[in-house]
Design brief:
With 130 residues, this protein is mainly α. It contains 6 helices and 2 strands; from the N terminus they run H-H-H-E-E-H-H-H. The relative contact order is 0.16.
C-alpha cells in the first residue's frame, strides 16, 4: 500500500479502492492498515468525492524499518531486546543476550537503510511502465 501511495503521490489523494485493485489486496484489509498509519501520522486523509489517502511526507523520508515498526509493533527477534523492554533479571548472566542484541542491530540497520523511494525505484526498474 505504501509503495502504491508513493507511486501516485503526485496525483493527490488515492482511494483505497484503487490501491486494492492495483495491488490485489482487499479493500477491507487496507481499511485496517490505514487506521494504523493514520494514528502514526504517516498518512494524510481527505474525505469526499475526490478523497482518499496520501503520504504525509516524501517517499525518501520513510524507511522500511519505520513502516514495519508501525505495522508490527516492533522488529525485535526476542522481547528482551525491545526498545521499551524492562531489563530481564538474567540479563547480566545471559550468554545469548549479545547474540540477540547484535541480530536486532543488524535487522534495524538493514531495514532503516531502505526507503520507500528505494522500493519504488527498484519496482520501476523491474517493471517498466509502472
Amino acid at each position: 500500500m505504501m509503495v502504491d501511495l508513493a507511486r501516485y503521490q503526485g496525483e493527490g489523494y488515492v482511494s483505497l479502492r484503487d490501491v486494492a485493485e492495483r495491488q490485489g489486496i482487499s479493500k477491507k484489509y487496507l481499511e485496517q492498515i490505514v487506521l494504523i498509519f493514520n494514528r502514526s501520522g504517516a498518512l494524510k486523509a481527505s474525505r469526499g468525492f475526490q478523497g482518499g489517502y496520501r503520504l504525509a511526507r516524501a517517499p525518501e523520508e520513510y524507511t522500511v524499518g519505520e513502516i514495519l515498526r508501525v505495522t508490527e509493533n516492533g522488529l525485535s527477534p526476542v522481547p528482551c531486546v525491545d526498545q521499551d523492554a524492562e531489563e530481564c533479571a538474567r540479563s547480566t548472566v545471559c550468554p545469548t543476550l549479545p547474540i540477540w542484541q547484535g541480530l536486532n542491530q543488524v535487522i534495524n540497520d538493514y531495514l532503516d537503510g531502505i526507503t520507500l523511494r528505494d522500493l519504488l525505484e527498484q519496482y520501476q526498474t523491474a517493471s517498466p511502465g509502472f
